[in-house]
Design goal:
With 232 residues, this protein is of the alpha/beta class. The protein is 35% helix and 22% strand.
Length: 232
């Protein structure tokens, strides 16, 4: 199976992550999907940004007008939704603030489900989301290194569709922490694995040997080139 090229915060080796340029050039350079981070503003708008702060100000305490003045190159989720539907582009939406659950459910009730996947470290959020709408595709980000059966138990309890073992900082060569037996143990239960983000050629070449559903990277054209060179 050819893994999907998933741009981590867009083409973020060249452009500031989560900006319009990073997102659009990610797709233009070969990405199949794009991962972005979502924050909730004071006036309950969902803003695409990784950090909780802008110049020392907490986004949760800023209104959308002020944020747009500070960060004009970053989109709001409503703009991403319009772009994704118009261009038929897939997104993985990382939830950074569980307070947006009502807005997320309302939005995903009205859009093509195949274009949007909800991901988070917040297992409580993902569990509640599934209880309220089981058709939303969800993904848990694992911070701790776990064996396949422990990971499967967690995934099944939460009802998630994907797992991301975010182990890029757990080992100098993180591909050594996982193997096809791990991945396929979950796949047998229709739970698919997406790799952590990786930009080193040597590591990407190891990752494409495995049965990942997708490989996350800050450099989508590099991964696309490696896949092409390996005759996928």
């Amino acid at each position: 199976m050819i893994p999907k090229v998933i741009a981590h915060r867009g083409y973020s080796t060249v452009y500031d992550g989560n900006t319009w340029k990073a997102i659009k050039f990610a797709f233009e350079s070969g990405a199949d999907a794009c991962e972005i981070d979502l924050m909730l503003t004071k006036d309950k708008k969902i803003f695409v940004h990784h950090d909780y702060y802008i110049d020392g100000k907490l986004i949760a305490e800023m209104d959308s007008t002020e944020i747009k003045e500070e960060r004009p190159n970053y989109p709001f989720l409503e703009e991403i939704i319009e772009y994704a539907i118009d261009m038929k582009k897939e997104f993985f939406l990382e939830i950074k603030d569980r307070r947006m659950i009502n807005q997320i459910i309302d939005i995903l009730n009205t859009v093509p489900k195949e274009l949007f996947n909800i991901i988070s470290f917040d297992a409580v959020f993902l569990s509640e989301l599934k209880k309220r709408n089981n058709s939303i595709r969800t993904c848990l980000i694992l911070g701790s290194v776990l064996d396949a059966y422990s990971s499967l138990t967690i995934a099944e309890n939460l009802g998630v569709n994907f797992l991301i073992p975010a182990w890029e900082e757990r080992h100098p060569y993180p591909h050594m922490l996982i193997n096809n037996k791990w991945i396929n143990t979950l796949k047998q239960k229709d739970i698919y694995t997406i790799s952590w983000h990786e930009e080193r050629v040597s590591e990407l070449e190891e990752l494409i040997k495995m049965d990942f559903f997708g490989i996350s990277t800050n450099n989508p054209p590099l991964l696309r080139k490696i896949l092409s060179n390996n005759l996928f």
